[in-house]
Amino acid sequence: MLDEHDHRALGQRLDLFHLQEEAAGMVFWHPRGLMLYRLLEEHVRQRMRDEGYQEVRTPQLYSQPLWEQSGHWENFRENMFCLPEGERHLALKPVSCPGHIHLVQRMAPSHRDLPLRLGEFGLVHRSEPSGAMHGLFRLRQFTQDDGHIFCAEEQVEAEVVRFVKSLRAFYAGFGFDHVQVAFSSRPAQRAGSDAVWDQAEAWLKSAALQAGLQFVEQPGQGAFYGPKLEFVLNDRLGRAWQCGTIQLDLVLPERFDLCYVDASGARVRPVMLHRALFGSLERFIGILLEHHGGALPAWLAPEQVVVASVGAGAAAYAERLVARLRQMGCRARADVRDESLSRKVASAHQDGVPFLAVVGGREVEGNNVRLRLRDGAQRDLAWDEAVAWLSAACQPAVAG
């Protein structure tokens, strides 16, 4: 029996998603849950546009030679889902990095194109053992808001600082004011020489200090291709989960012979930065649900307004109000069932709807609306005032 505050229980109560053994470690998204998923996706997509990222999409399945070239076959093979194909294998991608590198190779950038920023909502698969899976927090199939920055050496610190300085505001927009930061250095099993790792760690640590970050050291916890900064959020039990990250990679550009043309016409190796804001969208949704106890901020609620009619004569009035709210960009629906107001109030609360608009004979006659908020407060407003107030209240308070 799940605790009522567990994100899996909240997902059932709010009709967002479910998990089942026939697809262990993978999510069945219900319409309301997919709406939340898309809202988060679009929030990051807008940020990508603002920050100069070009959105791309890369294949799900690659042949063994690509993973051998990237180093994943040697260093990450046990976490990959593989399919036999003759003498070699195909593997579902656990990351989007190699695909982005191939795109940059086709772009053949010059120094004028740098920093070159690519982003993808990459569906990835990782072969997690059954005992390690835990709701949305650890899955076999999930989506990364995967971004890669290809830049010159002299641009590295500025790019890292640019990312980390804005991340706290980004998380604060979702109600997370406490973010832990960890610096993860070279693991025992890794690619690249010690000299390459010395340089990568020095650059990343310098940028973190320049950005004013206070971080804890995590020796040996870096990716096999480079050190990383991890941005950690806590669930309701205080357990730490990595969400955002930025990683400094000098290894993969070398392994794929990735170059740009500098001002003198010479071919120069770029630095590759791997970055994510959510990390896993699914994991972030799980943390978000528990953090807010299912009462999501209005701008993220799959349904923002329910207009409940009282009495048969108010149904048409409720439908007109819903139509107007939808024109104003609100996610609204009418509850015109032949049920008591108390049952409609309870239903809206159960669904996590932040605003309930009640309309009965008195409201129809006076062209008014009675609003009920989550905290139980009520207010009577004229039709136009109610529409203006609700449309403003349903917008993001912080752009992030």
UniProtKB/TrEMBL annotation:
Enzyme Commission number(s) of this protein: 6.1.1.3
One Gene Ontology molecular-function label: metal ion binding
Keyword Ligase: yes
GO annotation, cellular component aspect: cytoplasm
Keyword annotations of the record: Aminoacyl-tRNA synthetase, ATP-binding, Cytoplasm, Ligase, Metal-binding, Nucleotide-binding, Protein biosynthesis, Zinc
GO biological process: one example: threonyl-tRNA aminoacylation
Coiled coil: none
Occurrences of domain Aminoacyl-transfer RNA synthetases class-II family profile (ranges): 6-297
Annotated Gene3D superfamilies: Anticodon-binding domain (3.40.50.800), Bira Bifunctional Protein, Domain 2 (3.30.930.10)
A Pfam family annotated for this UniProt entry: HGTP_anticodon
InterPro entries with a match to the protein in the record: aa-tRNA-synt_IIb, aa-tRNA-synth_II, aa-tRNA-synth_II/BPL/LPL, Anticodon-bd, Anticodon-bd_dom_sf, Thr-tRNA-ligase_IIa, ThrRS_core
Catalytic activity: tRNA(Thr) + L-threonine + ATP = L-threonyl-tRNA(Thr) + AMP + diphosphate + H(+)
Sequence similarity: Belongs to the class-II aminoacyl-tRNA synthetase family.
Protein name per Swiss-Prot or TrEMBL: Threonine--tRNA ligase
Organism field: Corallococcus sicarius
